Amino acid sequence: GNRPDISVRYVAGPGAPLWTERSYEHMARAGYTKNSDVYACVSLIATTGKQVKIDRQGKGKASGDLLIKAGGPSFIESWLSYILLAGNAYVEIAHNLVGVDSLHLIQADRISPRLNREADGKYPEVDVWRALHVKGMPYPIQPEDLMHSKLFNPFDPIIGMAPLEAAMLRVDAQNEGATLLKSLLQRGFAPGWIEAAKDSLWDEPQVAQLKERMRQSKLSGEELFLENAQYHQIGFSPMEAGVTEQQKMTKRDIASVFHVPPQLIGDTETQTYSNYQEARRALYTEAVFPLLVQFRDDWNRTIGIPYLQSELTWDRDSFESTAAARAEATDRVQKLWASGLITQNEARRDLE
Asked: What is the pLDDT of residue 278?
């Protein structure tokens, strides 16, 4: 009669949280392929950026023609997607005796740098890039034959850091919340624990048998009930735990990492901007244009000037939203000039 009461508790999941491995493949699978908000942000930026009008006239003709030959809009879309998901975008420059023959985007996890260990400088230098063929065979790429674009990484001067990596804590939490909700819907109840009756006496073989039976019931998806036992709920229900509200907050956090107004990816409750048109303009100015400028500058530095003697250019006003903003600015400046508040030269500078 001095034996303690036996309590059998059910605890869901491991004792410590499990986070997605910080590699391109794992983050892309957990983020882009399994998280709708990450997919929405990346695809929105990429599909918007590919609409830019490439200049194929004058000094930019050679660069524009080569970019169109490489795929044009689809090439820009893939480049934007890679740099958002991996923090790096790699373009192999295949050339012949005449000039550049073709351009090939390399998947971010299929290329790595080999550093020059004998360099005299204080900073690491890439001796050669090691890429993998589609059949898995490695082959070298010289630095001058690769257009490497990267985002800032505080821990690596060579390899960039992906915005997706900064969002992965939120991505994991959101994915886990969705998995929990689906599990609860399938099981029909919240996790709990079963406590034996107050005056029950259990010996060790009985406790071991019960634990084994509980383990088997979990694996088979069955529900285990005990006679003369009391069921207690543990933790909170999805509504009490605020899982749904947390999903909304996570959506906004992920959108902020990619500089995308959350209302453009389905968050209709938060109207950060007064109307949809302003949100679209914010998408261009904060998310799309900075990356397009980086693409243009990296192109001119590694391809346009060295190989083609032609600088890549495009018209920012080719986007409908920015064209509308440009028209409003032009109308405002014209009115100021007509009223005599600014000079003709000041008006010209404002419109440049």
From this structure: 85
More confident residue, 285 or 247: 285
The contacts found for 233-239 with CB under 8 angstroms, 24 or more apart, are: 233/190, 233/191, 233/192, 234/9, 234/10, 234/11, 234/190, 234/191, 234/192, 234/193, 235/190, 235/191, 236/190, 237/190, 238/180, 238/181, 238/184, 238/190
Eight-state DSSP code of residue 33: I
H or E stretch at 192: strand 192-196
Q: Which two tokens stand for residue 238?
A: 């999805």
* Euclidean distance between CA atoms 286 and 41, whole angstroms: 13
Q: Residue 296: which of 286, 318, 311 has the closest Cα? A: 311
Does the model's pTM come out above 0.70?
Answer: yes
**CA 163 centroid distance within chain:** 6
